[in-house]
Amino acid sequence: MWLAALTGGLAWLLQELDAGSLDRGAPTRGPAGDALGLVGAPIIVFFTLSFVSAISSRDQVESLLALKEVFLFAAPLVTWTVFRDPQRRDLGREVFALGVLGAVGLGIYQTATGAPAEGESMFRASGPLGHYMTFSGVLLVAVPLLLSVRGGLKAMAARLVAALAVAMIGLTLTRSAWIGCAVALIVYFITGFIRGAGEGLVPSARGSRTAAYVLSVAIGIVIVVILLTALAGPDALYERAASTFSLDDPSNRDRIAMAATGLKFIRAYPYLGVGPGLMEARYPAWVVEWAVRDTNPHLHNNLLQIAAERGLLGLGAWLWMMAAFVLVAWRVLRAQGAAGIGGPESRAALAALAGFLTMGMFEYNFSDSEVLMALLYVVSLPLAASAGLRSAEHGGVSR
Fold this sequence. Notes:
Oligomer: single chain
Distance between the termini: 29 Å
Order of helices and strands: HHHHHHHHHHHHHHH
């Protein structure tokens, strides 16, 4: 991945050096401006601060090994390089949809044939990813991108796969993914009404778009309900949903204890944190007395975990990075509109990021490499879309 990233970076540098010889009426930067630089700066700052946190920790080797996630962040550069062409982006989404379909099919088979673990009301499928939380997290990120596929039968097929993926998220009984998926779907459908700069939408077109949304939602709900009822039954789902905000649930009480413990770490190490990857080893010595469990691998919350391990400086850089991806997607969406070139990808990016961040309030999904890889692919597609557009075609859009 890094070889691909370095090759892409060299191509970008050569293009920028040659920009002076291009026609002044056709600048190379798209509606998001220097999109790669916009997201590249916070990524560099975040991992620089993470490195400083690691070498200042009590276990430098363990902390430095925990920074292997930096390799995943070659994904935005690779996506930016490969998927500038709209046809390539369409092909990429279609291949992605086939992969999701295979994973969901395996998950449904596991659910239909697997035996529940002790204390569980039903089997929690992991698909091909080894754990049901990882599986649900990847599907959560995938659903908005599946909904963005265009082209008649391909779009219908992708929406069917998206409905199956939503049902599979329900079957994993992962409550944080349920909430995140709901937020992602809401964001995706709301952004469908964003108009591009100078774009008009006549009332009849607006009405037909609303009707199409209502029909898609109705069909999706029918598919989801049928699958959930057939494979899970309403009782198991109701019990799991009812426990979401109940303090009688030990996992909920323990999450509150994790938050209290995390705040202790932040107060003790406010700037650079205790060190990346050291939470599991240090947690037993810092855990509050009323916690349900004395050990935990992480704090089940992105904000608390990053602040505790990498300090408030690291948290600030991480929030800057997330905001940069949002800004790039919003600029492309606002310039092109929901139906324009790059618009569907931007809607998917905004929705996937909203769902990911929502799930991250209840789970440390930033550390899950499979989820992070899928997310980085989805949120980097607007980077590619912006690079593939000439800003001269979008007069009035600032860079």
